[in-house]
Amino acid sequence: MIDWLRPDHQDPAITLPDGRTLPIAIRRHARATRLTMRLAPDGNELRITLPRWGRTRDALVFAEARQEWIMQQLARVPRALSIEPGAAIPYRGASVQVEWQAKLPRKPRLAAGRLAMGGPQDTLENRIRRWLEAEALAHLADDLAFYCERGGQQLPQLRLSRARRRWGSCTGERETGRCIRINWRLIMAPDHVRRSVVAHEVAHLTHFDHSPAFHALLGELYEADISAADHWLKHEGRALYAAFG
Question: Quick one: which H or E segment has residue 31?
Fold first, then answer.
């Protein structure tokens, strides 16, 4: 059932058969020719794109008619990971177990598949996330240097991204300085997947599009099977968003 309480359709939402209310984010796109709908990676909202001329009411009716599909997509959203002593967290395509003892140093230390740390137990999640972000920055810096050298590119600025939809982006102009942003969550993915995203963005330093020339360059830069990395992100990437809300 659509929430029609607001006549101007601000903050629209749909109530599903199981009683859950799901917010609807409606976006208009100049190049859209039809309505499209997808679920946010973490399942927290329904996203509908429609042409510039599309009506908000049409988008809401579109969602109402596809409740079964929405329920199926929600069922596929990975469950959030509970960060606590003994939990297994993803790291570079494997799992490491959180080992917490009050007497240990506060800073996490990785050894033999265990992430050992002390300090307050109620700050475990924040400290582990900061550790993962630091690991991501170090590995991504190495990846970026490798692909820029291979592609004969000047090393751009590197920043971590916390985006909920994109794995990487390349912005700026050659004259003013370019910046590559990579999602920190990729430190939890296998190395070849993380590296594929960096190679992708480095290729954009030369071709700021997805033309045949871009894909040819990406094939030269990336040393592994790009289709396998893309397949992993498409089918497993959503789980990375569930690990740390």
Answer: none
- Which tens digits make up the pLDDT trace of 174-183? 656 789 999 9
Structure tokens at 7: 């006549």
* pTM as predicted: 0.75
N residues, the chain? 245
The reply to whether 109 and 139 lie within a common domain is no
- Say if residue 2's pLDDT is above 70: no
Report the alpha-carbon angle 213-215-221, nearest 5: 105
Mind listing the pLDDT tens digit for each residue in 123-179?
999 999 999 999 999 999 999 999 999 999 999 999 999 987 789 999 877 656 789
Within-domain flag for 2: no
User: 128, 89 in Cβ contact below 8 A?
Assistant: yes
Does residue 217 sit in the same domain as residue 158? yes
Does 233 lie in the same domain as 141? yes
Distance CA 70, CA 87 (A): 30
Rounded CA-CA distance 47/51 in Å is 14
Domain that holds residue 113: 88-130
> Is 1 part of any domain?
no
